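Before drawing any conclusions, I looked closely at one protein, both as residues and as discrete backbone shape codes, quoted below without any editing:
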Amino acid sequence: MLGFAANGSESPAVLVFGDSLSAGYGIDVDQSWATLLQARLEGQGYEHRVINASISGETTEGGAARIERALGNFNPALIILELGGNDGLRGFPASRMKGNLDKIISASKTSGAAVLLLGIRIPSNYGRRYTDAFENVYRELASEHEVPWIRFFMDNVVLNEELMQDDGIHPNAAAQPILLDNVWPIILESLGN
């Protein structure tokens, strides 16, 4: 777990709660979009500290199991929730994924944190029916919980080989500023701008 707290522990926390896409898998952590977010917030005069509690390989079930502890440890003002990709790659039922994400969002909102939901898309290996059900989870949760969301966190990255690592799944260092740009508008919205 990485914490970037340039402005001291009294600053409001932004908790990035995700999997390898947010953990900086395969790149220097200083190049990850979460680290770039800290620099951008500071550069624009925000006093928020970014805490990256993302874990490579994390599923929504793992996230649901650790959300209460993360909320207690960091008392975030904002949670950027990026989970589900590993559920989809393993073919877990979309209903189970939705239930886990629902628990995370509910616990976060109950704690007083604002939530941003980052949608993920998966390859069509499991067929269109599963892929549609998977992608609809994010839309449904955003509507049910009235939280801002983006349809596809990896937009403008995943189909560009120059922005992907050799595994074809994880974004490389060059992709990280684009990932940040993808989430920045809803972060600003959540910060009241």
Summary: The longest strand covers residues 13-18. Confidence is low (pLDDT under 50) at residues 1-8. Residues 2-190 form a domain with the Rossmann fold fold (CATH 3.40.50.1110).
